[in-house]
Amino acid sequence: MQVTAGACNIPLVLHGTIVLLLSQLAGYAFFRALAGAEHEAPRTGMWRMSHAACSAGAVFLIALGPVVPHLSFLPLPAAIVVDALIASTYALCLGTVVAGWSGHRGIRSAGPWSNRAVYVLYVTGALGSTLSGLALLWGATRTYLAS
């Protein structure tokens, strides 16, 4: 079921707001890392990335709130596109938070559990966002051609 208020997809706005709050928490961790020792520079960079990536993901979800109800996703239900967008954004953002917390980059599926967790979250988020991006392109193209 796609929940809308007027011409706005409320789940996208709601989850975008939650991710925005998550970016604020990453921002506080980034601030603390900046005040830390110089040998913590790599972790400071990870928290910077987490704060920026979560903020961008939040803005993306919120910005799509009024757009998605106007797109034609058939034969895909719009709810699947919305759910995939939300899930992939959470996966990518949580991956950056775990990376900042653990200091692991998650480039390979090896090493300690925290590195593997970052890797799985990044891969899940990347696959989901790619599929969501293709679905958005499909919906935008169908809507454009119909107009």
Brief synopsis:
This protein has 147 residues and is mostly helical. Helix content is 73%, strand content 0%.
Report what the structure shows.
The chain has four helices and no strands. The mean pLDDT is 90. Helix 1 (10-34) runs parallel beside helix 3. It has helices at 10-34, 41-64, 78-102, 113-146.
First-residue to last-residue Cα separation: 25 Å
Approximate shape: elongated
Helices, by number, come to 4
Structural class: mainly alpha
Question: Strand content of the residues, in percent?
Answer: under 5%
**Helical coverage, percent range:** over 70%
Secondary-structure element series: HHHH
| Oligomer state of the chains in this structure | single chain
Mean pLDDT: 90
Task: Please describe the topology of this protein.
Layout: H1 10-34, H2 41-64, H3 78-102, H4 113-146
List keywords for this structure.
147 residues; mainly alpha; 4 helices
